[in-house]
Amino acid sequence: MAMEYTTRRWLGALAAIVLLSCAPAPAEAAGRKLLQIQISLAQQFVVPQNHMRAIQEQRPLKWSSGLADQAERWAARFKGNCAAASAAMPGGVNVFRGFGEAGKAWQPSDAVAAWAEQSNYFDLASGACAAGKLCAQFKQVMSKGNTDVGCASVKCADGTTLMTCHYSPLGNVFGERPF
């Protein structure tokens, strides 16, 4: 039962992420006009995170321009060395670094998918992460105390992409269950 629920939860999150990562259709194809869909950066980050939260009956996050500005300033500090960002991560922050695939255009959905994947290591019964596994970023997204989020994406000097989301109030408190 728990495995089926985890798989169903992951597949639902993945479906939302895939929908958000689809490139807009060209204005004309095969002689007919198609609808172009423009999804804001805020929506690309918030919608899949809110989908994850809805599965666990958590209230949705609201986009905060102030937190987005904070995230942008924080990420800009690491443009010269994106690898240093993970080590300098303050509380209430999630970080994703996209690298390794030459020419890949990393999307917010890639960051949220990586954080969602950590749910595979989170034990709902105990509220803890499996031994030797990481699930802090999943727990940050899911933290019941979070109400607002702001995110940013920057291109680093080495070609990697750094994405970060800042949450308020700070969630993922040590010793507290996220939801």
Automatic annotation (TrEMBL):
In the UniProt record, the signal sequence range is 1-29
Keywords (alphabetical) are: Signal
Which Pfam families does the UniProt entry name for this protein?
CAP
GO CC terms in record = extracellular region
Q: Where is the SCP domain?
A: 40-175
- Coiled-coil residues: none
Q: Which PANTHER family did the record assign?
A: CYSTEINE-RICH SECRETORY PROTEIN-RELATED
Q: What is this protein called?
A: SCP domain-containing protein
Q: Which organism is it from?
A: Triticum aestivum (Wheat)
